[in-house]
Structures are given as structure tokens and as C-alpha cells.
């Protein structure tokens, strides 16, 4: 059984202007088969034309495109029992 990954680089708060993209990044101690999930408040985010979710090795990124005031709030990243929020 693989040891559980830990979050080695936590999310940082991002301030941006309306209409710009907001980029959130989290880095894990290892690549993991566990599903990682991004949330805006309590709403799980999917990759679509407004949100881009990327995984490159241990780095997990979320790009919110052309943010609006409605996008203001808490972003969280969860994998297994771990979570980080900004």
C-alpha cells in the first residue's frame, strides 16, 4: 500500500481584478492515485471553459478564468484526508 501523500506547498491567498484569471497551486509530497478535488466554498469544481484543473506530477493547479465578484470566496483543495484552503 502506498504511503499517503502530504501537502508540501499549501494554497496561497490570491487577490485579482474582475476579468483576470486567478491561479491557485498546491504541491504534494508524491504523485498519488487518490482523486484530488477543488472546491469554491462547498461547490466541487470541474474542468470546463471557466475553470482549468491541471495536474503535472505532484503539482496541482486550478485556474479560474475571467473571475467575477461571484467567484470571491474560499478555494479549497482536498486529497484523501488532507485539505488546504485560501
UniProtKB/TrEMBL annotation:
Residues 3-86 form the Ig-like domain. It is found in: Cytoplasm. InterPro entries: Ig-like_dom (IPR007110), Ig-like_dom_sf (IPR036179), Ig-like_fold (IPR013783), Ig_I-set (IPR013098), Obscurin/Obscurin-like_Reg (IPR052385). Keywords: Cytoplasm, Disulfide bond, Phosphoprotein. GO terms for cellular component: cytoplasm. Transmembrane segments: none annotated. It comes from the Eukaryota. Pfam families: I-set (PF07679). This is OBSCN protein. It comes from Horornis vulcanius. The gene is Obscn_6.
Amino acid at each position: 500500500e502506498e504511503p499517503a501523500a502530504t501537502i508540501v506547498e499549501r494554497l496561497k491567498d490570491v487577490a485579482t481584478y474582475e476579468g483576470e484569471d486567478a491561479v491557485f497551486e498546491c504541491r504534494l509530497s508524491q504523485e498519488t492515485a487518490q482523486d484530488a478535488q477543488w472546491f469554491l466554498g462547498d461547490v466541487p469544481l470541474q474542468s470546463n471553459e471557466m475553470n482549468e484543473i491541471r495536474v503535472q506530477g505532484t503539482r496541482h493547479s486550478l485556474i479560474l478564468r475571467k473571475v467575477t465578484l461571484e467567484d470571491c470566496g474560499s478555494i479549497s483543495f482536498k486529497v484523501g484526508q488532507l485539505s488546504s484552503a485560501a
